UniProtKB/TrEMBL annotation:
InterPro entries xref list: NCH2
Taxonomic path: Bacteria, Bacillati, Cyanobacteriota, Cyanophyceae, Nostocales
Protein name: NACHT conflict system C-terminal helical domain-containing protein
Residue ranges of every copy of the NACHT conflict system C-terminal helical domain listed in the record: 140-182
Pfam families per the UniProt record, alphabetical: NCH2
Amino acid sequence: MVRRSLQASHIGIQQAKRAFARKGWTQENLALEVGLKTRQPIWRFFSGRPVERHIFLEICSILELNWREIAADPPAEFSDPTEVTQAAVLDIDVLVQRVRSQRQEKIQDQCGILQLLDISRPVGIDDIYIDVNILEEIPSQQQQQVLQCYYDANQLLLDCLNSNCEVTAAIRQEIEATLLLPQKELEDREWQ
């Protein structure tokens, strides 16, 4: 069983105090760096009293110390946070698939009916999930605004078409052909 708090050993406190002195900070500065509202956990850390594990790890990280060397009786079964993070990144797709399969019935129950303009209709579970495309970098603010306008207009048109708004077949075909561009065509377009 992993303990919820950790405390610094006598030798660890000395190492932490030296690292703290090298930074030239006050306890308030360190508390702000750790994201704390008060300096009480910092004082508890330096006086060898128990501190919540996540705060202990964050203090050691900011002071560039190995938390296992600072802690008194570090738990053997508690893994290094970087190991957990790397494993989580590698298995995210597997996790998403597992959660979807385990929660499919609940998701279908909660999200399976689409309500548009007082018209309810069932929605397939595959239609609930959407592909997320993330742009790593948007070259300019203007392009971002153009994309946002496009997405907003696209959503408005989709809502209109899906709610059976009264448009002629020719207008509907024109909207579908010219304004609702497929994702591949969007990716291939060059933005000015």
